[in-house]
């Protein structure tokens, strides 16, 4: 018997908690300078969602170019940022849905649908960035898409998982609210006759 799953009253805050985790990972992705980095020493290139920086092997100072000068840079940043803003809205709606008992299941599927929209926007931004970056920005040395870019994908994966659960959760409304009496099954042969 499963004691605590997504369909139990005590665990109702698990989905909003996961959305909060996705928001934290999204903030790291938006603010992080590790979307693209040099793979090994000398570290001569690094990039964020907003700019690309290079330096000479003996130069300690970074020379940065804004990616907002490129149409694809604005598109990647805008799509990821729009997805992030909708994610924050979904988080607020989820907290409201699980706090107010009357409203809880009236719009839970709507939150799930919005989360699929979030995932679509974030995936578009995460795909545009590496494809166009490698085409338009001259790369120096061996480079890799790094930790901040990974946080962007991790946030997207969490959002997709939460979207499925939000869409399916109303199917278990009675279990979550405790409206169904538990069914007990006895396997002892001595007690089996009176169960029929």
Instruction: Quickly give the structural class.
Output: alpha+beta
Helix-strand pattern: HEEEEHHEHH
Query: Helical proportion?
Result: 40-55%
Largest sheet report: 5 strands, antiparallel
Task: Give the topology, please.
Elements: H1 14-31, E1 36-38, E2 45-47, E3 51-54, E4 63-66, H2 71-99, H3 108-136, E5 143-145, H4 147-168, H5 173-177
Antiparallel strand pairs: 1-2, 1-5, 2-3, 3-4
Helix pairs in contact: 1-2, 1-4, 2-3, 3-4
Describe the structure.
This protein is α+β, with helices and mostly antiparallel strands. It has one domain (19-170): Up-down Bundle (Butyryl-CoA Dehydrogenase, subunit A, domain 3). Helix content is 53%, strand content 9%. The protein is built from five helices and five strands, in the order H-E-E-E-E-H-H-E-H-H. It has helices at 14-31, 71-99, 108-136, 147-168, 173-177; strands at 36-38, 45-47, 51-54, 63-66, 143-145. A five-stranded antiparallel sheet has the order 4-3-2-1-5. A hairpin with a 3-residue loop joins strand 2 and strand 3. It is elongated and about 80 Å long. It starts with 13 loop residues before the first helix and ends in a 19-residue tail after the last helix.
């Amino acid at each position: 018997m499963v004691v605590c799953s997504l369909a139990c009253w005590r665990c109702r805050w698990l989905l909003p908690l996961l959305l909060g985790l996705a928001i934290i990972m999204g903030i790291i992705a938006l603010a992080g300078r590790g979307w693209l980095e040099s793979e090994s020493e000398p570290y001569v290139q690094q990039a964020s969602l907003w700019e690309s920086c290079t330096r000479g092997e003996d130069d300690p100072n970074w020379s940065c170019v804004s990616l907002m000068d490129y149409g694809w840079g604005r598109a990647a940043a805008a799509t990821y940022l729009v997805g992030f803003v909708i994610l924050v809205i979904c988080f607020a709606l989820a907290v409201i849905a699980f706090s107010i008992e009357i409203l809880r299941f009236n719009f839970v599927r709507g939150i799930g649908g919005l989360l699929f929209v979030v995932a679509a926007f974030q995936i578009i931004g995460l795909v545009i960035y590496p494809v166009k970056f490698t085409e338009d920005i001259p790369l120096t040395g061996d480079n890799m898409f790094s930790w901040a870019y990974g946080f962007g994908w991790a946030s997207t994966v969490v959002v997709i998982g939460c979207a499925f659960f939000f869409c399916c959760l109303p199917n278990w409304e009675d279990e979550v609210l405790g409206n169904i009496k538990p069914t007990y099954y006895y396997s002892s042969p001595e007690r089996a006759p009176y169960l029929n």
